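EI: anyone free to look at a 169-residue chain?
SC: sure, send it
EI:
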Amino acid sequence: MKDTDMNQSMKLGLAALVFAGGMTGIASADGPRGERGMGQVDFETLDRTGDGLLTGEDFAAAADARFAELDADGDGEVTEAEFLERAGENAAERAAEMFARLDADGDGVLSRDVFEARGADRGRGMGRMIARFDSDGDGAIDAGEFETARSEMREMHRERGGHGEDRRR
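SC: here you go
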């Protein structure tokens, strides 16, 4: 395969990832509000020409921008270290956003009450889970019921194509 063919193939592959929302959390640095790590790219970001149409050139430009963002040293290749660095930045951004959501009063600290409240919410969900899979009605899940629940969850996970549509919202 010629070098230009490989570059074209790589651009098309990256364009497909851009269109599908791939490379989760790795978005173009010039998103709608200049934010980085925005996850899914919106139409306006992809429409580089602003003509209201998405063309192959728009997708290729978005793919180039994503690749350039990953290629920190600009050598035309993304190393594992570059990829992990960007992934770490995205994880830190998501963690900061989560912290801000939990810190309702904005004082920069989370009290134990915040975690207990979240635990209570999860506890209600666990109660529903136990009720759903407690086939013998003893109020607990034994090893067999656990395996049944696990199999059902895996199947549901597969049917939804991963984490489910609402998981990342």
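EI: Confidence is low (pLDDT under 50) at residues 19-39, 164-169.
SC: 👍
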